[in-house]
Structures are given as structure tokens and as C-alpha cells.
Amino acid sequence: MYRALGTALMVAMIAFAGCQDIEPSRTIISLQIDSDGDDTWVYLYTIPRVKMDNLSFDVAGNKDTFSSVFSHQIHLSSTDMDNLTKDTDGFFTFSAEADLSNVFWAFTCKLRISELVKNSEEPVVADVLIDVNDEEITQVWELPYNMPLEFKV
User: Fold this and answer.
1) How many domains is the chain partitioned into structurally?
2) What φ, ψ does residue 14 adopt, rounded to 5°?
3) Is residue 15 part of a domain?
4) At 44, is the secondary structure helix, strand, or coil?
5) Mind listing the pLDDT tens digit for each residue in 117-129?
6) Helix (H) or strand (E) holding 82
7) Alpha-helix residue ranges (DSSP H) falling in the chain
8) CA-wise closest residue to 80 among 96, 60, 106
9) Residue 115 falls inside a structural domain
10) How far apart are CA 78 and CA 61, in angstroms?
11) What is the pTM of this model?
């Protein structure tokens, strides 16, 4: 009797383990960029794993949005990177956005991914220009790079 009750409780707990209340204030949206110099991958995912209303990337004006997903990723080949609209310094616009229950996260910058020099020990880096209070801040990210998105105000 107790064994059957214990088994039933265990099955019920496992069945509801994936169900969670959606609490935007406890959700982290993480952005990760990785590159081998030829191919670049950009990931957007939630911690904890929560289905978002929307996850979006905008790469040089080409917006890609998925709804009701836990994560979203894009792949940019070296050919894709060559065909992006860039400024005179080789930067392209990039943004990542997420929303859940009328709470919004976002990150926007100008981005330039270095090419891997063959037979080099040097890491692939991203040069990043971020607008903070109308001032352009320059950062260099050694790839892979991971960061949480900020709440959008």
C-alpha cells in the first residue's frame, strides 16, 4: 500500500517537474557568441528554462524572431558575414531581444568579428561598440563570450 502510494507520488512529482510558474523577475536571458573565425554562432537562452513569448536577433537589419521557445540560435558563415551591411570600419548592427509577460530584455551594439589567422594561437575576438547615454563604449570580447541581457526600459 505504502509502496504504491510512494510510487504514485514520485510519478506525479516527475510529471509536474517541467511545469513552473512564469516569473519574469526570476528569469535570466543569456546571450552567447562563439566563432572559429570562419563560422559564428549566436545563442539566446533562458535560465531557468522557460518558454518565452519571443526571442529575436537582428543582424544588420535582418530580424529573426521565434515565439514560445526556450532558446534561439543563428549561424553566420564567413560568406554570410561578408554579405552583411557594414559601416566603413567593418561593424554591423546587432541586437538581441526577449519578452515574457510584458517584461522585455534587450542588448544592442555594433559588432565586428575578427578572422582567425591560420596556424595562430590567437583567440577569435569581437570588437563591440555599445551606446551608453549617448557615449560609445568600446569593448573587446574574447570568444566564446557570454552575458546576461538587461531589462529594457
Assistant:
1) 1
2) -65, -40
3) no
4) strand
5) 666 778 899 999 9
6) helix 78-82
7) 2-16, 78-82
8) 60
9) yes
10) 18
11) 0.80
